[in-house]
Amino acid sequence: MATQKLYAGAKLREIRTRLTLTQKEFAQKLGVSLPYLNQMENNNRPVSTTVVLALAQEFGFDVTELSTGDSERLVSDMREAMADPILADTTAPLADLRLTASNAPAFARAFLELHRAYRQTHERLASLDEALGREDVQMQPSPWDEVRDFFHYCDNYIDAVDHAAENFANRAVAEGGIRNAALRALNDKGISLEYADEDRLRHYDEAARTLFISERSTPETQTFQMLMQIALLQSDKLLEATLDLARFQTEAARSIAKIGLANYFAGAAMMPYGRFLEAARDTRHDLEVLANRFGASIEQVAHRLSTLQRPGAKGIPFFFVRVDQAGTITKRHSATRLQFARFGGACPLWNVHRAFETPGRFLRQLAETPDGVRYFSLARDVSKTGGHYGAPVRRYAIALGCEIRHVDALVYADHMDLSTAEAFEPIGISCRICERTHCHQRSVPPLERRLTIDENQRGVLPYEVG
Q1: Is the predicted pLDDT of residue 446 greater than 80, yes or no?
Q2: Kind and range of the H or E run holding 159
Q3: Which of 181, 279, 346, 355 has the fewest C-beta atoms lying within 10 Å of its C-beta?
Q4: Could you read off the pLDDT of 2-16 as tens digits, one per residue?
C-alpha cells in the first residue's frame, strides 16, 4: 500500500501563529527554505519528514495532531450539507471539499454555518403556525447545535478542565476515594448534603446551602452529580474562562455549554486521565472492569474513552454515540475518520440499533464504510429506570468503536475473523451521501447518482442507482 502524503498547511499556519513567528523565522527553526515552507502552508507540497521531526524536537509538538485536525470533520459535514435537496443541482467533488477543508477551514465553517441557518429557517417555516405567535424568533443556530459543535471541534477534549479534574482526583486518593473527596469539598464550602426521595437527580438550594441528591439514582450517578455541583461552585472561574474563549452567540448556548463543561469535569474526576488511560490499556479496554474499578457506569466509561485525546498522551481514537429507540443520535463524538450525520439518524445497518433487542449484552460488529475504511464497533443498551414502580424507562443504546488497526488493544475483538472481506458489514453515514448502490435499507436515493426507474419491474427498491 502506498504511503499517504501528509498535507497540513492550515495546521502549520496555526502552529506558527500560536508561536508568533514570521514565516522566515519559522522556516529557519524547521530547517527548510522560506519558499518551501510557503508551499507547505498552502498545501502545494506535503509536510516533509524533516519538518515533522523538527516540530517534535524544536517545539515538543505532538506530530499526530498534524493528521487529526478538523479536516475530516469538515469534509464529512460539508458532504452532508451538499446533499441537502436545495443543492441537488450543485455537485462538489470530494477532492474539492478536501481542498476547502485543508486550505480554507474558515470558509468551510462559514458555509456550514450558513447551511445550518438555512435549515433552521426552513424548519421554522414548516411550523409557521407556531412561529407566527412568537416575537422572539431569531435567525441563528439552535443553542443545542452550537454547543454540540463546540465539543465536536474541540475533539471532545477540554485540556484545562481535564487537568483541573485530574488534580482534584489525585488529591482524593489521600481522602479515601473520589466520593469522600466530594463530600469533603462540599463540607469545606459549607454545603450540607441530603438524599431526597424524588425524580430530580440533583437540586442545589443556594439559600439553604444544601445539595439534594436523589436517593433513587445509582451510586455512580449520585457521585457524578455531586462532582458536577462541585465543578459549578469550585471551578466556576475556569469554566467561565473556557466559555469566554468559545464565544457562543447566545446566552442559552453559553448556559448549556457550562453544564456540559461541568459534566466533563465530573467524568474526568471520576476517571482521571493518567490512571484511567493506564487502566484502559492494562484491561484492554474492558468496559465492565473499568466501570467497577472507577465506580462509573458503562456509558460513562465509554464516553470517557472517547475523550482521551490529550496531546502527547493520546489513547485509542474512538467514536462514541448514543441513540434512542427512534434512531435519533442524542450524543455523538468521533476521534476517527468516521463522522456521524449532523441531521437525522444513524445508518440502520449499524449494530447500535440491534442493541435494544438484546438488553444487557455486548454486540460486536466489523464494519466498512463506503470510503473503504474498516471499523470495529461495540454496542450495548443502556436503559435507565426511574427508580420506582411505574416510573418511565429511558431507553438508549451506545456504540463505541475504532478503526480496525487498533483491535489488538480491545478484548472484545478477540477470536473475530478479520481476514475475510465478507466479515465486514457495509455501513454508511447518511443515505443521501452514501454511495452504495444495493443497500436494502436505503430510505432515500443518493443525490450524486443517476436513477433508473422501470415500471415493469420492482426489486428491493423502486429504482436502480446508476
Answers
A1: no
A2: helix 159-172
A3: 279
A4: 455 667 777 788 788
DSSP tag of 395:
P
pLDDT value, residue 144: 83
Given a contact cutoff of 8 angstroms between Cβ atoms, the answer to whether 368 and 343 are in contact is no
Residues 6+ apart with CB under 8 A from 80: 341, 342, 343, 429, 430, 432, 433
- The number of residues in the chain equals 466
Give 45-81 pLDDT, tens digit per residue.
Answer: 878 877 888 887 777 776 666 654 567 777 777 877 7
Residue type, 351: N
Average pLDDT score over the chain = 84
Sheet with 192-196, strands from edge to edge, namely 192-196, 210-214, 202-205
Contact present, 210 and 233 (Cβ < 8 Å): no
Query: Pairing between strand 319-324 and 396-403?
Result: antiparallel
Query: CA 281, CA 168: separation in Å to the nearest integer?
Result: 23
Round to whole Å and give the CA distance between 183 and 193. 8
The one-letter amino acid at 432: R
Q: Answer whether 203's CB lies under 8 Å from 215's CB.
A: no
Residues 6+ apart with CB under 8 A from 205: 211, 212
The CA–CA distances, whole Å, from 319 to 24, 270, 426, 458 equal 39, 21, 17, 38
Radius of gyration of the chain (CA): 24
Closest CA to 109 of 212, 193, 244, 10: 10
pLDDT at 336: 79
Burial of 278 from C-beta contacts in 10 A (0-12 / 13-18 / 19+): exposed
Q: Which amino acid is at 200?
A: R
